Amino acid sequence: MRLDWLLGASRDPMLVCDPAGVIVRANPPLAALFGWPLDELVGEPVEVLVPAHARSRHAGLRRSSDGARAMGSGRFAAVDQAGNEFPVEVSLARLDADGGPLTLATVHDVRARVGAEQALRDSEARMRAVFETAADGIITIDERGRIERVNPAAERMFGYAEAELAGRNVSVLMPSPDRERHDGYLRHYVRTGERRVIGSGREVYGLRKDGGVFPMELAVTEMRIGTARMFTGLVRDITARKDSERHTGTLLRELRAANEELSNFAYVVSHDLKAPLRAIAALADWLATDYADRFDDEGREHMRLLISRAHRMGSLIDGILQYSRLGREGGTLRMVDVNAAVAEVVDLLAPPPSVVVTVAPGLPRVWTEPTRIRQVFHNLVSNAIKYMDKPEGTVAVACSDDDGYWRFSVADNGPGIEARHFERIFQLFQTLAPRDRVESTGVGLALVRKAVELLGGRVWVESEPGKGSTFYFTLPKAHRDGRLES
User: Fold this and answer.
1) How much is the pTM?
2) What's any GO biological process attached to this entry (predicted)?
3) Which residue range is the domain that position 413 belongs to?
C-alpha cells in the first residue's frame, strides 16, 4: 500500500518491475510519457519501453546477478507505443518485497535538455569556426591582462604561435608607451569601471614579434564567465588602408595644385588674349566700314568671316573664363525662386517670334547659388533657340519631384541628337553643328554640367533625331551648407 501511495503521489514517471522484468506497477505520468494505457502497460515486459535494437542488451543487463547496479542510473534510449524513440534518464532503486526483490525505476524525459545541449554544441562549433577562420585577429585575456587564446589570424598578424603567448601579458603585443600604461589602465578599469577602449573602437599600434610596429583598429568587449571577468579584443591590421590614405592624400594635394595651376593658366591666358583680340575685331570693323566700297563680293565675304570669327573667339574666351571661375570661386547659397530666375533668363534672351518659350507654373524655390542656376538655364534655353530648325519652334521649361531632388527639364522640338553624341556634347569645345552655320564655342554644355555637379546634381539628355531634345538636370532639395565647394 505504501508503494501504491508513492507511485500515485509522484509527479515523475515511475514503474516497478519484478525479477523477471515484468512491469507490476506504473503511475499515470509514466503511462502518459510512453503513450500506453495504464492497465495495458502492467504485465508487459519492461523491454516494450526500449527500442528494438537495444532490447536484447537491456534484457541481458536485467538478468545479470547485479542487474540494478549494472544498468545503473544514466541516459538511455526509450520508445513510446507509437514507435517514437527519445532519450530518457533512468534512476534505479532496489525494493525488498515479500514476493522477492523489485526494481523501482524513475524516468525523466530529457529531450528538451538534449536539444539544448545539442544547440550549445552547435553554437560552440560555430563560434569555434568563426574564431579559427576570422580574417581579423581575436585575442582573449583575463582581468590581469594575461593572454588565454589567440586565433590564427592574430598569430599571423603578430608573428607568434598561440603557445608562445598563452599566459603572457597582452602588453607584449604593444609598443611603448602603451606597453607601460596598459596594466595600470586595466587595473583602473577593474577598480572603477571607467572606460577608455572597452566597448568602443579606436586606432592604436601593435608590436610584432620581429619588432615591427603597425597601425591597427582595436575593439574590446567584456564578458563574464561565472565570477571571472574576461576581455576579448578584435584587431585589424590597417597598414594597407593607412598607406592608401596617405597615397590618396598626396594625389589629392597634387590634383588640387594642378587644378589651381590650370585654372590660373586659363584665367591669365584668357585675359592676355582679349586685348589683342579686341584690337583685331576693332580693326576689322573699321576696315569693313571705311573700305566697304573697295571690296568685291569675295573680299566682303572674307571680312565678314574675319569679324565673325573674331567675335566667336571673344565668346570662346568669355566661356573659358566662366568655366575656369566655376572651379575657382565658391558662390553663396540662398533660396532662389526658379520661376523668377527663368523669367529673367527668357527676357534677356528675347526669343525670336518663331520660337515660343513656355515655363510651367509653380516652379519650386531651391537652395542654390543664384548666378549659377541662371547660367544653367541661360545655356540650355539659348541652345534650344540657337539650334532650332523648325519654322515654329517650341521650348518648354518644367520641373518634377524626384525623391530627394528637383528634376528640371528644358525640352525643344529642334533637330534632335543621335544617342552616340549624348556624352560628347557635354565635353569642353564640342559642338555638333558646323561652326560657320551656327555660332558656337562648345563651352555652354560643359559649363552646365560643371555648374550642376557643383550644386550637387547631375545632368543628362534624352533625344531622338528630328523630334527634338530634352535636357534634364537635378538639384537637391536638402539644405546644404552656406557655400559651394570650389
Assistant:
1) 0.46
2) osmosensory signaling via phosphorelay pathway
3) 334-476
